[in-house]
Automatic annotation (TrEMBL):
It is an enzyme of class 1 (oxidoreductase). Its EC number is 1.-.-.-. This is TIGR03557 family F420-dependent LLM class oxidoreductase. Keywords: Oxidoreductase.
């Protein structure tokens, strides 16, 4: 089992995100995962730096910790040729510590170019084509590709790492899990859903299974729950809502009825390592083996100390 830390780029400025990557390495985490957003989810976040710049800076200022996107949509806002190049460069700069997490995207980030927001069926088809293009470019040499949705014209990625980065594909249902099994090297999910893992393994998937575990550390439960409500209440809306709304104002409206008690039920809130370990076990029991701890508490450095001194041992024991 590997334990990672979520670098929440929507809530902190880019320099702070890179600092947190260094602190996560010192605290003993195996990897960090950075969101790839154009917009934040809520007005209370106020940030959304460019993930590839932050990854490059994190790679230069850390030594052993793994780096991952969580996750990148490799079409619409980007073209997969750009992601193939960006991921290859990041793998080189990090000395092969990078994992490319990809998914079918959220309207929140992808509508900014003015392109139409496709149905989920079309997005899955576009994701397949994007992954085929990335794999093609990573094979070396010049390539062209003409799909139903995406085109590549006589392109080559010149700087390829000696070890290609693994690709973890986000899934919340059977169709995306099959894409993860057939075109990815691992699975990425945000809910403790054993059915998604069953769909992935049933389609032949054998790679690592990443998840995001909702925690909120503070010295008391009330402070933790208030912070989780301020920062992470959008997470309780579910993937169908998260993928479709276009701007923070829409998420403010969609989360108006979510309470701090709702956050307590969903998150490990407060200073009790047993409660945090209980939430983590929901994901390990479902079959996930790469756990990304997503701290929605107000004290980042306090959480790193809490993890190093109290929580990590309980997670190993679990």
């Amino acid at each position: 089992m590997k334990i990672g830390y979520k670098l929440f780029a929507e809530a902190y400025d880019p320099k702070e995100i890179v600092r947190q990557a260094r602190q996560a390495e010192r605290a003993g985490f195996d990897f960090v995962e950075i969101s790839d957003h154009y917009h934040p989810w809520l007005y209370s976040h106020g940030h959304s730096g460019f993930v590839w710049s932050m990854l490059a800076a994190a790679a230069a200022s850390t030594e052993r910790i793994g780096l991952a996107t969580g996750v990148t949509c490799p079409f619409i806002r980007y073209h997969p040729a750009i992601i193939a190049q960006a991921a290859a460069t990041t793998a080189i700069l990090s000395d092969h510590r990078f994992t490319l997490g990809v998914g079918s995207g959220e309207r929140l980030n992808e509508h900014v170019t003015g392109a139409p927001w496709p149905s989920v069926t079309v997005r899955h088809a576009m994701l397949r084509e994007a992954l085929e293009i990335i794999r093609l470019l990573w094979s070396g040499g010049y390539h062209s590709y003409e799909g139903k949705h995406l085109v590549l014209d006589d392109a080559r990625v010149f700087d390829l790492p000696s070890e290609l980065p693994p690709i973890a594909v986000a899934a919340s249902g059977d169709r995306a899990a099959e894409i993860a099994a057939s075109l990815g090297d691992g699975l990425f999910a945000t809910e403790a859903d054993a059915d998604v893992i069953a769909a992935y393994t049933g389609a032949g998937g054998t790679g690592p299974r990443y998840c995001e575990v909702p925690l909120a550390y503070a010295k008391d439960e009330a402070t933790a729950a208030a912070s989780a409500h301020r920062l992470m209440r959008f997470g309780l809306t579910g993937w169908k809502v998260q993928s479709e709304l276009p701007n923070p104002i829409n998420f403010e409206a969609a989360t108006a009825s979510i309470t701090e008690d709702d956050m307590r039920r969903a998150f490990g809130c407060g200073p009790d390592p047993d409660r945090h370990a209980e939430v983590v076990r929901q994901f390990t029991d479902a079959g996930f083996d790469h756990l990304t701890l997503m701290n929605a508490g107000p004290d980042v450095d306090g959480f790193f100390d809490f993890y190093a001194t109290e929580l990590s041992g309980k997670l190993v024991d679990s």
